[in-house]
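Structure (tokenized):
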């Protein structure tokens, strides 16, 4: 398979149009059989549900080239399950799991020339999404939907790759108590845009959102979960029903326990105790694990002992093990790696 002529090692996290996307439409209570399309444009009625009331949910996963030249994806079953939960919460039809995995395989296979080669640091990012397409003017769910998967080759989410980030404790909330923070709905990200622009304008890389009810506990950033390491090498991740259940975080907890022999715990974490941790990272499909060097709470700097120059030792091991599993240099747990054949 001849790869596209792209400078793989120097791409950022942006949109590069690829040759094919998967499209299936929902009408009269059922999904059609779905197809690959070469058309990157979506033409919608001016009153489509997605345009009026933001009825859209999405996912993010990646395809990788392994060390022995195979193309694989990572735990797409969990993305299918989470998309189903997101869709149900916004009164949208669920796209069946088996069909989701099949669609992922089709779109990766069709775009294999865009799957970055092993060792370049780049991957093919897949973005499955569902949105309401028919006209809706009273506030109610659409009755017609489109499911699509687009893909685009990407490099690191944060410029500078593995350089430690500086995070701002945001004055804005990302989610409401009993709201939609636990699902991957476009509306959560629209909500975060002013906060992220504000943080960037002030020189920060990302926001730390606090729990919306008490504003004392660590939730997540706009696009990743937190992972902390204690001074005695225990991995701790925030537990909350208003954060997205990150597939990367859940995988890393298992990696910590089963591959690195570390204790790992999911529990509520107060902002106050963050100063006691040795390492901090952001984990997600896009972020992988990106190290955090410093969290700034209204001028009070919480600097982690791992510093601003490099990733902490446990974070490094977690990252190397996870990416090793994804790239085929380390044996994966049963069912984590799905081959594109
Ligand atoms: N939290 C938010 C808000 C996200 O957008 C993402 C990205 O998907 C994550 C966490 C990480 O989730 P995952 O590891 O499943 O990509
Ligand atoms: C992902 O990691 O897949 C996400 O959706 C995060 C997003 C901010 C790019």
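Design, position by position:
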């Amino acid at each position: 398979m001849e790869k596209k002529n792209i400078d793989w090692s120097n791409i950022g996290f942006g949109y590069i149009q690829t040759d094919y996307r998967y499209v299936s439409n929902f009408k009269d209570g059922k999904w059609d059989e779905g197809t690959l399309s070469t058309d990157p444009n979506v033409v919608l009625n001016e009153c489509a549900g997605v345009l009026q009331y933001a009825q859209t949910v999405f996912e993010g996963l990646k395809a990788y080239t392994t060390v022995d030249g195979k193309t694989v994806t990572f735990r797409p079953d969990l993305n299918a399950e989470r998309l189903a939960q997101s869709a149900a919460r916004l009164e949208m039809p669920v796209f069946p799991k088996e069909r989701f995995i099949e669609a992922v395989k089709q779109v990766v296979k069709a775009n294999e020339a865009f799957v970055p080669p092993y060792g370049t640091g780049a991957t093919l990012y897949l973005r499955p999404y569902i949105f309401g397409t028919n006209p809706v003017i009273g506030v109610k769910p659409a009755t017609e939907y489109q499911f699509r998967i687009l893909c685009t080759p990407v490099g690191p989410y944060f410029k500078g790759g593995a350089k430690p980030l500086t995070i701002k404790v945001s004055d804005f909330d990302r989610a409401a108590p009993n709201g939609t923070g636990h699902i991957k709905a476009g509306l959560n990200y629209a909500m975060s845009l002013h906060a992220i622009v504000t943080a960037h304008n002030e020189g920060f890389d990302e926001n730390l959102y606090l729990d919306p009810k008490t504003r004392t506990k660590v939730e997540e950033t706009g696009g990743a979960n937190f992972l902390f390491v204690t001074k005695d090498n225990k991995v701790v991740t925030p537990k909350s029903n208003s954060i997205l259940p990150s597939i990367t975080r859940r995988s890393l907890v298992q990696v910590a326990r089963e591959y690195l022999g570390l204790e790992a715990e999911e529990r509520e974490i107060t902002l106050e105790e963050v100063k006691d941790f040795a390492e901090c990272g952001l984990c997600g499909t896009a972020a992988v694990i990106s190290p955090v060097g410093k969290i700034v709470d209204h001028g009070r700097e919480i600097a982690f002992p791992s510093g601003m120059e490099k990733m902490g030792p446990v974070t490094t091991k977690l990252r190397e093990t996870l990416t090793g599993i994804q790239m085929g240099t380390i044996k994966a747990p049963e069912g984590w790696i799905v081959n594109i054949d």
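Reviewer-requested clarification: The first strand starts at residue 21 and ends at 27. The radius of gyration is 20 Å.
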